[in-house]
Amino acid sequence: MLSPIDLANDGGEAWVWIQIKAEARRDAETEPALASYLDPNLRSATVADLIAARYRDPACVSFSHCLLNYKGFLACQAHRVAHKLWTESRMPLALALQSRISDVFAVDIHPAAEIGKGILFDHATGVVVGETAVIGNNVSILHHVTLGGTGKAGGDRHPKIGDGVLIGAGATILGNVKIGKGAKIGAGSVVLIDVPPKTTVVGNPARLVGGKDQPRRHDEVPGESMDHTSFISEWSDYVI
Amino acid sequence: MLSPIDLANDGGEAWVWIQIKAEARRDAETEPALASYLDPNLRSATVADLIAARYRDPACVSFSHCLLNYKGFLACQAHRVAHKLWTESRMPLALALQSRISDVFAVDIHPAAEIGKGILFDHATGVVVGETAVIGNNVSILHHVTLGGTGKAGGDRHPKIGDGVLIGAGATILGNVKIGKGAKIGAGSVVLIDVPPKTTVVGNPARLVGGKDQPRRHDEVPGESMDHTSFISEWSDYVI
Amino acid sequence: MLSPIDLANDGGEAWVWIQIKAEARRDAETEPALASYLDPNLRSATVADLIAARYRDPACVSFSHCLLNYKGFLACQAHRVAHKLWTESRMPLALALQSRISDVFAVDIHPAAEIGKGILFDHATGVVVGETAVIGNNVSILHHVTLGGTGKAGGDRHPKIGDGVLIGAGATILGNVKIGKGAKIGAGSVVLIDVPPKTTVVGNPARLVGGKDQPRRHDEVPGESMDHTSFISEWSDYVI
Amino acid sequence: MLSPIDLANDGGEAWVWIQIKAEARRDAETEPALASYLDPNLRSATVADLIAARYRDPACVSFSHCLLNYKGFLACQAHRVAHKLWTESRMPLALALQSRISDVFAVDIHPAAEIGKGILFDHATGVVVGETAVIGNNVSILHHVTLGGTGKAGGDRHPKIGDGVLIGAGATILGNVKIGKGAKIGAGSVVLIDVPPKTTVVGNPARLVGGKDQPRRHDEVPGESMDHTSFISEWSDYVI
Amino acid sequence: MLSPIDLANDGGEAWVWIQIKAEARRDAETEPALASYLDPNLRSATVADLIAARYRDPACVSFSHCLLNYKGFLACQAHRVAHKLWTESRMPLALALQSRISDVFAVDIHPAAEIGKGILFDHATGVVVGETAVIGNNVSILHHVTLGGTGKAGGDRHPKIGDGVLIGAGATILGNVKIGKGAKIGAGSVVLIDVPPKTTVVGNPARLVGGKDQPRRHDEVPGESMDHTSFISEWSDYVI
Amino acid sequence: MLSPIDLANDGGEAWVWIQIKAEARRDAETEPALASYLDPNLRSATVADLIAARYRDPACVSFSHCLLNYKGFLACQAHRVAHKLWTESRMPLALALQSRISDVFAVDIHPAAEIGKGILFDHATGVVVGETAVIGNNVSILHHVTLGGTGKAGGDRHPKIGDGVLIGAGATILGNVKIGKGAKIGAGSVVLIDVPPKTTVVGNPARLVGGKDQPRRHDEVPGESMDHTSFISEWSDYVI
């Protein structure tokens, strides 16, 4: 058997690394506060978020840059832990964690909010997501976006965001409204009513591009394509 | 007489707590920098703010949660101290405190701004309130709201917000305009002119709901009811 | 020759200060990480930014207040260092610095973005400036402004802001569009197309004040005059 | 019934404070991580520590000063929570908390160490207390004191400190030795063997004052009297 | 007259710097909390401390390095401000500042302690200076030095250190004892009685080098020469 | 080929991790400030330090605990980077890093000091290591240890510590003295002269155990065995 000193003289770097990983796993198994690191659902969500940032944000040059530096990514992972605490009825800790995330990242997501996988919070500053909001998979949300409530009554009062939705910078969606799969919410829009799947809304107050009766539909998945520009030509007739 | 050790053996918790409160009061009386803790106006404003958060924000589950965690509440209390310094002509300290509040909470309130009692800054990230702004009592202000100036001239150049007003997320109100008592400013609105009491404005640029000549008036106090939705039906005809 | 003790007894304050400045210069000359402090371009840009804040923001009562407290000023100077690292192909450090600036100031400027001299970031919270954005000289940008990209393709995809432009609070400018010299972008505007020089756009979606065919032109330099109000009369006909 | 607004107008400060205390108790009852705040043993220990600081340290002018500012007091209370985690077999959290206390206060107490009530850590910087150390009640420990182990074997290897002991600044006690009740350990002493009750040791290596066979005994409780000087006359014969 | 923009184009760096200095002076004159920056006594003490560090510590390569990095220098200057608050009877602020200095630098100096000019706190970690301690001019104090009290009675109970004294690392001086001008206190000494001027004490308990009756006297000023070694030969006969 | 989305759906965790490691390596290769992460000497020293902590400190229950929490380990690794900067003549950065390490960990190691592999800084608070100190391999150093200089002259003036030495808590070694291989320095010792290999010194001033002429020699390697107690019996005759 190798002695510790032999290992040290030989380097032993690989062996130490193996020990560290085994210890971390053991700690996570025995300490409830660390258990989320072993939750396969959380792990796969984190991986999907990393891939989302890497492939949707052209300024994201590497996974490691995202892992170290992206406040949207980091705030989302911290929310996933806060949400787990919330579902285990540990409200005081969950709320304290929300508050800390809000102070550090200026991203305010209620711990009860449900968030899917493959989420990109791009830039992220100023994002607010309310208590009964639900966000599907492969959604991209720019900075200053609000998924807010309406009124001071409790109950189900925040938006439901379908899979593949793209929400532009500064958009405000209020109330228990349904944003259909693959919809696109233009930057700065204020949205208070349901938006059909695969359609686009723009403006404040928001208008459905193409009109209420025959809205234009797109085939792409905007949450993945990140195409904020397709509606420029549609606007150009009457905007400037 | 009880000796300290007897007290310690008996617990003595209540007695120690009484001493601590008496000491804190004595310190506050002798040290000018702590005097604001004894100012009855500041104290009642703080209590009113706590009650406002607790009863208007359905996600606020307890006073203690607000006291510990709500950055809007904490930033507002810190502003009240900065404002007191400002009124005592201690501008450098007041401005340094404003800057610190802005760094920590991303809430930027000029120390000269006058703020009433029972104020709810909900979520609070990104709020900007200018030097000559005045905010009445029982006002609710969502995140990303700007009460801004116009131009580089000094003088009275920021909004005056009446009692009971509700200002939705991301609204921008610019210039020395008067927002009447009980008015409601829709999320994302850009407002540059006076708004009559008990009326609602929405959109960018903002429109008076019901029209300039016969604006619809509501009876509620929106700053207390927090009802962001009443105008949805009014919008639905022409928005989407 | 004076001994150190003589100097200490005499005060020697001026002499020590001279030594400190000489040492700082010597350190900056030999240590690459400090070299930017000697770059004449960076120094003159910093001075111009200070003067911009002092003369355009009526709440800015002194240079020293700005130097110590203005997060917009401090974030801009930190960006200038990050940008220098970027141009020297030290991307990991530049991106890490961007991330740190975003965490501390809630101002997110890609290190590749080119920023001129005499820039005022007023209030600054929530500003986002993308990778291929270019900002000219004597520009004033309020808080919550986005100079964003469109889509997930790389390449030149962010706005180009001409000299003397004023961008109001919460405005969102997306894509590789050109904002002409001296243009004025109203608060809360969402702009996706080029804006001619010396004209004004307002609203979401943005409209050219005066209309596409005969836009009204102003003579002032809005980035310097900071006049957000000139278009109120123009709005008043149809807004409220 | 009073409405919230009535309360706000009336002040309602007392009523809000009652709510806050009730909420804090409820949170502490339901959230395991907060449970230590309700543990009567921890509470009475904290009270006894406050009283110890107030009455033994002549520079401690008030309980509130101690509660807010004394790093020895704060580090000790944090240790009490870490120790509770340790006894519940939550080692990773307990060790992480120890490390955090060491970084913040430069006080390094292993979470397994058992500490009695009425403890004064005066100045506190640099205190090190090992894993199997036991500290009785009414003990006073100055800064830079080490209760250390000997060797790299595990097992019971740290000092056991009796009730009422006083340990002077910079004293080092090593190994599983017993410091008898009411003993006094001179500043800077290095102690490796048992010390009888009510005796004094000084020097490096430590000598028993009065000699091994007829050590001088005192009647006071040095941990409470804080008398570091009684042995000066004893030293004066042979020291200087 | 030059316009601001001309200045910006011309650089204007020198002019801006002059304004900044004038503003800082004006702020310091009007704001009591900043007044110490103008106190000529504080300023000359700070300069003397800088010179002391530069010329006595061979590892101190520049004034600027000391000004930016030396925790002993920074803690001492912060103490000077705390001491000024104390002399103005603003005890709560002074004590809070002491506590903050202790947390940040691990240097714990009671705000009532009087400290002369030209002081070098070398390395500084763990220094403790009590309430009634007095330190003369041109004194050098190494890390882990304690100037402590004895007992729990108030009153004058801490050491008085004469001009030009050198106190070695880890020395502990307890009680209202007088350390004569130019004395040298060996590292790790524990001193409880007066030390005559220009003599040396070493050991724990401390012995006067040369003996009580004919102590050896040196001519140098050890606080300035920093000579820790002169007594090695004196020790070598009987030490190892 | 797998698409990113497929990977995300499949988990793709292993693949992402491979990318992250490759990116980190690429960044470290191109960015000079990160190059030390690839230096094989630094890596093997770090591994040896980890193994030293794990096997010599009975309170160290895992490598991961050490890696995350041990301030001695972390301060030593940070020093290794500062030392590399120093050897590359980047003094200002190296000194700034030293200062930061001293503030955060209360461990003050001059960046010029040379430190071998397999070093344990146990507890670590208050350690001071001077500019020209040299520490061999497999050395264990407890808290509050000083390897200090003597006098204000520059040049080679700090201790040289041989392989396998153990230095007890609070020991102070001053001057350019040589501590032989495998020597043991008792806690609280003050050492000013060379110590022969495999011998023990204790006390202040330090005495060679067994006497100058026939010092007792041990066979163990104290830096690895961590045996602080072997000399108790030797002391017991004359100490207490």
From TrEMBL, chains A, B, C, D, E, F:
Biased composition (Basic and acidic residues): 213-227
Keywords of this entry: Acyltransferase, Amino-acid biosynthesis, Transferase
Domain annotation Serine acetyltransferase N-terminal: ranges: 16-78
Any single GO CC term annotated in Swiss-Prot or TrEMBL for this entry: cytoplasm
One GO term of the biological process aspect: cysteine biosynthetic process from serine
Matches recorded under PROSITE patterns: HEXAPEP_TRANSFERASES
InterPro entries, alphabetized: Hexapep (IPR001451), Hexapep_transf_CS (IPR018357), LbH_SAT (IPR045304), Ser_AcTrfase_N (IPR010493), Ser_AcTrfase_N_sf (IPR042122), Ser_O-AcTrfase (IPR005881), Serine_acetyltransferase (IPR053376), Trimer_LpxA-like_sf (IPR011004)
Top EC group: transferase
Molecular function via GO: serine O-acetyltransferase activity
Family the entry assigns: Belongs to the transferase hexapeptide repeat family.
Protein name: serine O-acetyltransferase
Source organism of the structure: Coffea canephora (Robusta coffee)
